[in-house]
């Protein structure tokens, strides 16, 4: 599943005079999924069905 907006990542890095490798997008998606899994687990642990900023 794709979570990030490739154009936004590319634009941000271009603004910082950097380029982005294609594999970077996949790595960012994986990292985002891991973060969301951890946040979901924390919310469940606190008996909530809503992920909140503090869960991240």
Write up this protein:
It is elongated and about 45 Å long. It has helices spanning 6-15, 22-45. It has two helices and no strands. With 56 residues, the protein is mainly α. The chain starts with 5 loop residues before the first helix and ends in an 11-residue tail after the last helix. The chain has one domain (6-45).
List the main descriptive attributes of the protein structure presented here:
single chain; 56 residues; mainly alpha; 2 helices; 0% strand; elongated
What is the general shape?
elongated
Spans of at least 5 consecutive residues whose pLDDT stays below 50 are none
Tally of helical segments: 2
What pattern of helices and strands is seen along the backbone? Answer: HH
Radius of gyration from CA coordinates: 14 Å
The termini sit apart by 19 Å
Number of domains: 1
Number of strands: 0
Classify the beta-strand content into a percent band. under 5%
What's the short version?
By secondary structure, the chain is mostly helical.
Topology (SSEs and partners):
Layout: H1 6-15, H2 22-45
